[in-house]
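Appendix B. One record, verbatim.
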Amino acid sequence: MTGTNNTHILIMAGGVGSRFWPKSRNHFPKQFIDILGLGKSLLQLTYERFLQICPNEQIYILTNESYADLVKEQLPDILTSNILLEPSRNNTAPCIAYASYKIAKINPAANIVVAPSDHLILKEEVFLAKINEALTFSSQHDALLTLGITPTRPDTGYGYIKYQDGSIKYLEKNSEDSEVKKVTAFMEKPSLENAQKYVVSSDYVWNAGIFIWSANSIIKAFQKYVPEISDLFEKGISYYNTEKETDFINSNYPSSQNISIDYAILEKADNVYTIPADIGWSDLGTWASLHHVVDKDEDGNASSCQHIHLQNTNDCLIQLPAGKAAVIKGLSDYIVVDDGKVLLIYPKSDEQEIKAVAGKMVADFGVDYQ
């Protein structure tokens, strides 16, 4: 473990996971679901992964206040004071600012890893090594780092990061030279033509939303690029880690700017770096992306149920409640999900419509389907 004493982890767990409807719903979103069939939720897997980086008391969960009980239930060892509750959903910049000021008050020399709670990482040892490499760099430099994912295909669903040729080398104690790359641009989700160019050029990586920086560096960046956010959260410095913290956040957080950390800081800053990494990553953002990474039978079907009979069915993702049986014939490339209240049977090729379909169900039949 590199810099364990100063390392703090911020796991972002406030999303609603609407693209995984109907299994992911407002009251029980994706990060709390055992979506991989491993007996643990994505949040639990993420938390356990980071226990290899730093102690439990230096791991923070940032989530919406409506999910406080779910977090406590799934992570019984997490300190209650380390569950940071958003009273409103204002995107990633305000919540990262809140956590950064709170952590900096505890440890001004803190290094912070910010990571989503609902991503898949298959190459865990490589991931941990890259995180430790980034922590070493951020402890020595005024730098904002992102873990860049080496693209495996010209995917149009991800943002891309462009880095310049050549590397910045530095020497870790007791290790060989390590490399980081200077970021030159953040690219929005591209057209297929541009995505193909990015992959061929080999100086682009996917933006996974995994960030590493010192508390000092990110606070300076907030002060420089979004002073309205830094001004708001600096007013709470005397309240953080006291009984008055919750009241301050509930009163002030909803008025913070609704903006992502990418737009607020990373696309403006001149000290952004990336470490390219092949870590077996998926953001599990869609049913199709889940189908891509889970085990499948010889016909390409991935099923979570034991009692199933398939005929002339291929390349389908099938998730049913425990104890439910299914007989399916003649489906190709479909999503079949039954969460007990809603049954979804939808072509994988049209899954981008699911979010809108879920909204229509709520509009037509009420919030029970949200």
